[in-house]
Every structure is written in structure tokens, then in C-alpha cells.
Amino acid sequence: MTLEQKKNRLFVILAGIFLTNAIIAELIGVKIFSAENTLGFQPANLTILGFTMDFNLTAGAVIWPVVFITSDLINEYFGKPGVKRISYLAAFFIAYSFIVIFLTMKLPPADWWMEANNHDADGNYFNMDFAFNKILGQGQRIIIGSLAAFLVSQLVDVFVFQKLRKVTGQKLLWLRATGSTLVSQFIDSFVVLYIAFIGIFSGEQIIAIGITNYIYKFSIAIILTPLIYLGHYLIDRYLGKENALKITEDAAKESHSFL
Known about the structure:
The chain is mostly helical.
């Protein structure tokens, strides 16, 4: 297999991981879970701007770190053009997914389907069509906010990553990978909340929620830093150390010409 073939295969694999996790994260984001209960801890009860905050997070936060890591690997080996290409594609597919879901919510349910699924395991009645719409449906402002935050944070991430790459060269992978994620996710944490909830929550409450979300994202970004090195190691072995070095250098040069 030629180097070009390996490079193309690598991009397809990374793009597939990125797209799959980005879309799933958006779809499961409607569920809010307690991080403390999941880990067996007591509620955090943090006091932020006068609000008592716990780590009640969107379920999408569970797999968003996979998106961060994959984005950084694409940034390292394919540069700014690669990240922008996959980010725009992901935004398109996410929007497409929500459009399809919205259209299916308008389909009239079959009577037998409603009757066959109208009780839970304890015998309690429920409306399956309502449940379908409630689970898969998300507010328009939340969808717009989420898409806007995703695109803005991705563009910020690639900009910061390549700026740090220009300073660090091949060294300090953790700095450009984790550093760019910390900056981009700070912006992501507040963009989505302001678009989705301004006028519903007060500005102070939105900031308090954003700070709580960012504490989680900050912690996860630091904890998962070793996975960046693991991904880098596996890719270098696949491409060959010299080839990997050449590809990353080419990606950096191409990216810097756009900055």
C-alpha cells in the first residue's frame, strides 16, 4: 500500500469516528444525567453567582471527548483544511438528521403500533408517539445553538492548535491538543447556552450553567490527554515514523498559509 493510500484510509477512519460521535452526541443530548450519581458521589452543590449548581450534564457530554480527540488528530495530520472540511460536513449531517427526525415526528402513528406499545413493564399507560417525539425532538433554539457552538468551537480549535503548532513544532503535543480544546470548549460552553436559553434563563444563571459545564469539559480534556499520545503513537506506527513526520510537517505548512 502506498503512503497516499494509507493517508486516505487514515482520513476516512478518523472522519468516520468524528462524524459518528458528533451526530450521536447531538441526538442523545436531549437526556440530562447526573455525573455525581453516575460516579457514586454526592451532589457537588457548587455556589456560582448565587446559584447552587450540580454536574447535571447532557448525555452527549459522555462521547464528546471522542470528538475532541479525533479533531486534534485530524488537525495534527491533515491540518486546517482537513478539520474545516470534516467540521462543515458534520454540521450538515447533524442538521440533516434533525430535519429527518422532525419530518418523522409529523407522520401519523399506526393504530396497532400505539396499542402494542401503550404500557410499560409495570403496566402504566403511556403514549408511544408522544414518547417518540419527546425523546427525539429538541427545541429549535437548542438545535441552532448547538450547531452554531459546534462550528465556532471547531474553527477556534483549529486556529489555536495551529498557532501553538507553529510555536512548538513537533514538541509539546499535549500543549497544542489540550490547550486548543480548553479554549474552544470554553467558547462552546457559552455559545450554545446563550442562543438556546437567553430570555428563558437570566444572564447570571446561563453563566453559572456554562461554568459548571466547562469545569467538566476542562477536567475531561486534562484526564484524556494521554489518549492523544496513544492515537499519535498508533498512527505513527501505521504510517511509519518518517512518513508521519513528513505528513504532519506538510499539514502544518499548509495550515500556516491560511492563518
